[in-house]
């Protein structure tokens, strides 16, 4: 029988593409319509994603425990139902408070359950020595959603309205994503007589290695240095990316191109081009991570993010603006790789836990 592990990876890529795309990448495209129809301010709309990040982090603690006890497939399907209810609910909101509530509850629970948290657990069940590559491939779906969805969704908003767009998102989850999970997800290779990495004889873990308890991490200064550095980095990255379409509008990039009969706004193209930088960054810096001290690629990436932000702030020429979008976007691959590699370098994990 053909090894099914890569089927899990590509299914995970599809979930990541949709969940992150629907919640994050498409949301800034709705800002003008949401401000008009709900009377919301930009700070309130930005707060929706902030609440989602915080609430999903809290929800992930409990979801992680459930994933250890119950079927990943069932949790993903239940998460898909909750996620779709959140998307359907957004199409009926009449106030910014309702929008914030949905992002902090239904989407914060359904998103991780259908997407990242469950996908990570699923891939880890199927891969050991190749876990890093498998997780990296699954994560490409995140960046590709930023490349593809804004270009497709922006004209759709003008054609059918933002409320109907969220209805379409909900229908995609119900009729495409949940059936995909139902028919393609297999919790563990042992269920069908296969083994991790398609290797029948797995080497036993070296029990002599000293694994640290979670509480021990908090006693080390390097833990806080790495965590705070990446926390502030992610804060800057998320804030810039969330407001990039509006910023490019304020810079006067209002032209709409027609490519193969398809309208593409300059603002949307720049936004998607930043996400494309994330795709390139996953490949390029992932290659460097395997061959250099992880500190070096991470410092290069953070420097590029800084250069990109300064460029986006100061440049008013569209060609150079998109160039700095790409430079900034190279740092968007951080979801898997750099953060973990620094931790693995600083704290001696067993090889089986290396991503």
Description:
Residues 204-209 and 348-355 have low confidence and may be disordered. The chain has 355 residues and is mainly alpha-helical. It has a two-stranded antiparallel ribbon with strand order 1-2. The protein has 15 helices and two strands. Helices cover 73% and strands 2% of the residues. Strand 1 (256-259) and strand 2 form a beta hairpin. The two termini are 26 Å apart.
Number of β-strand runs? 2
Given as residue ranges, the uncertain stretches (5+ residues, pLDDT < 50) are 204-209, 348-355
Q: In CATH terms, what is the architecture of the largest domain?
A: Up-down Bundle
At the fold tier of CATH, the topology name of the largest domain is: Growth Hormone, Chain: A
Q: Helix and strand succession?
A: HHHHHHHHHHHEEHHHH
What overall form do the CA principal axes indicate?
globular
Share in β-strands = under 5%
Q: Which class of the largest domain in CATH terms?
A: Mainly Alpha
Short description:
This protein has 355 residues and is mostly helical. The protein contains 15 helices and two strands.
């Amino acid at each position: 029988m053909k090894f099914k592990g890569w089927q899990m990876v590509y299914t995970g890529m599809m979930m990541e593409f949709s969940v992150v795309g629907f919640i994050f990448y498409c949301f800034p495209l709705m800002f003008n319509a949401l401000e008009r129809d709900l009377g919301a301010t930009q700070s309130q709309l930005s707060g929706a994603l902030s609440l989602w990040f915080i609430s999903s982090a809290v929800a992930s603690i409990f979801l992680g425990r459930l994933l250890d006890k119950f079927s990943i497939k069932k949790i993903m399907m239940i998460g898909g139902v909750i996620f779709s209810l959140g998307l359907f609910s957004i199409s009926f909101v009449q106030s910014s408070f309702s929008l914030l509530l949905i992002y902090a509850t239904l989407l914060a629970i359904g998103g991780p359950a259908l997407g990242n948290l469950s996908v990570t657990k699923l891939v880890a069940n199927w891969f050991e020595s190749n876990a890093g590559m498998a997780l990296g491939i699954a994560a490409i779906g995140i960046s590709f959603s930023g490349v593809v969805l804004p270009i497709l969704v922006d004209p759709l908003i003008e054609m059918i309205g933002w409320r109907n767009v969220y209805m379409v998102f909900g229908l995609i989850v119900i009729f495409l994503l949940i059936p995909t999970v139902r028919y393609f997800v297999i919790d563990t290779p042992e269920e069908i007589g296969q083994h991790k990495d398609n290797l029948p004889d797995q080497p036993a873990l070296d029990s002599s290695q000293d694994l640290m308890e979670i509480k021990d991490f908090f006693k080390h200064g390097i833990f806080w240095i790495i965590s705070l550095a990446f926390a502030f980095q992610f804060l800057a990255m998320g804030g810039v990316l969330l407001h990039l379409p509006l910023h490019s509008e304020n810079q006067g990039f209002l032209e709409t191109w027609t490519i193969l009969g398809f309208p593409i706004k300059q603002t949307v193209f720049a936004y998607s081009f930043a996400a494309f930088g994330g795709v390139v960054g996953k490949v390029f810096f992932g290659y460097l991570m395997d061959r250099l001290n992880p500190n070096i690629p991470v410092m290069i990436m953070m420097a590029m993010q800084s250069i990109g932000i300064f460029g986006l702030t100061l440049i008013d020429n569209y060609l150079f603006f998109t160039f700095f979008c790409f430079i900034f976007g190279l740092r968007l691959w951080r979801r898997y790789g750099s953060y973990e590699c620094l931790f693995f370098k600083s704290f001696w994990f067993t090889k089986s836990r290396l991503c």
